[in-house]
Amino acid sequence: MSQAEVVRRTGATEGARKTSPLWTFGLLRSELLTTFRRWRTLALLAVLAAVPILVGIAVKIETSDGAGGPGGGGGGPAFISQITNNGLFLVFTALAATLPFFLPMAIGVIAGDAIAGEANAGTLRYLLVAPAGRSRLLLTKYATTMAFCLVATLVVAVSALTVGALLFPLGDLTTISGTRISFAEGLLRALLIALVVAASLIGVAALGLFVSTLTNSGIAAMATTVGLLITVQILDQIPQLHAIQPYFFSHYWLSFADLMRDPVYWDELVKNLGIQALYAGAFGSAAWARFMAKDITA
Amino acid sequence: MEELPAAEADEHDSVGAVIATRALTKRYRGGQLAVDGLDLTVPEGSVFGFLGPNGSGKTTTIRMLMGLIDPTSGTARVLGQPMPRAARAVLPQVGALIEGPALYGFLSGRDNLLRYDAADPTADPRTRRTRVAAALDRVGLTAAAGKKARAYSLGMKQRLGLAAALLQPRRLLVLDEPTNGLDPQGMREIRSLIRELAAEGTTVFLSSHLLDEIEQVCTHAAVMAQGRLITQGAVAELAAGTRGRLVVTTPDTGDAARVLKEQGAGDVVITDDRVTAEPPERDLADVNAALVRAGVRVRGFGVERASLEDAFVALTGEGFDVAG
Asked: CB 3.0 to 4.6 Å from B163: which of A256, B54, B135, B186, for a disulfide?
């Protein structure tokens, strides 16, 4: 075969194989479908949906017994005592109860498994020779993890709203500042709070993704991410570490309650979102640098 | 990134070669030298057998060719373009089965292929289902397409991995141990599939430790041991490089051996009623006549063709299944 023939053939083949412009979305769609069709994902969402149900039933039983003041518990800032007056408060209570542990743990599982799980199964090498492209695959994984953050938070919120509506009355509500707002505005604030809670998980997601690029074992990556989460939560309780605590990804998590003030107190909310952006930037870049240079031997 | 200087693509020694490596070397972080100065040339249109014992560096080489591992030094060109730099342009034209199939156990066979196809930037989503169905049909998995992949047998997984490599028309197929885990019938099917693909003009790069398999389907072969390339070339030439052995079947083995030595045959070995030797540099008819003249009762006389295995043993001085 002559040289010219080879060149012509190469040209023709490349011409026939144009990159489809919507390809990245196709990859993202495939990733989302794959993630949300796993039993593990559905089980995590089921656990998250169960939390508001348990809290709702517990509050209902306690108050119908005619017992005195409601227990403080993990309910967070003064929301749990209001549930009996207004079912909408179950949304805030449930989010406050799941944000410190259940939600970030679920994110840790999904993010930690993102790359390491594929490496463990060997499917990573086939995605890369397809070729998905390392940057695109990583971005797709991060986007999917964030989509899971949002879905997980909304599952908690919707489950809480449903249980709240079934067990307790709904209506106008009182903000933390003591002013009255309409039920419609309360719903809007609940949605806003759910979005802020989902955004609070961006930092953990980036951290989990970075850990996931370090190992070929999905289980190890998940365990490390969840372990880091618990460690940070503990360190955040030690008064001597006061100076570094504002840099923990979880430090301003419960600031979402400020959205229930009138007027809204934005200071810590903004700090929280800033910290999440910082973590996403730092660990996102670290994950990218690591993944681009990694030898895929699994 | 995908556009490369034309001069580079026309580089003399890569024209006509689907795979060309120059001094390709990989040293792992632990200091272990997995591939040592590999110069491999795979001609276009060949069925190329890549041989070597376990641990000889075959898989590391394949991973470097596919852009999964960065070489420590040296260069690799696939389809005339440098890897891993041109991976985006090269890999859509390459189908690969590397170190066995890897599947999503919780997805059906069909969904596994749909996912792999979605990862290919050049795959047309409109024809995806048709192409997946065609690939499943080609490997005989249509009936099991709806089953979860975790319920597949090893042979079925192997077929599904092959189907993933056949989702698009390819210029090069890289198949690492493609008949692993298959029953004899499955092996035969895969071999005929490989021949079929080669007839369509696809270059097939086949790694295997089964020498007879390579001999049956390959036009060219290369042998690796301990990270180095020992030899490469057309299979017929490799086997011809080793001369066949003269075999005499006779009840009078002692006399036969003596006569053969007198006739100039070397390395005479007696086993049961067979005497084998390096054939001497003269007409074998004369050798046979000499045997008969000496009163040796000859039952059989002939030269056994050298197999690739003989060639391999001659090259490495050791059996094939020795870990490097």
From this structure: B135
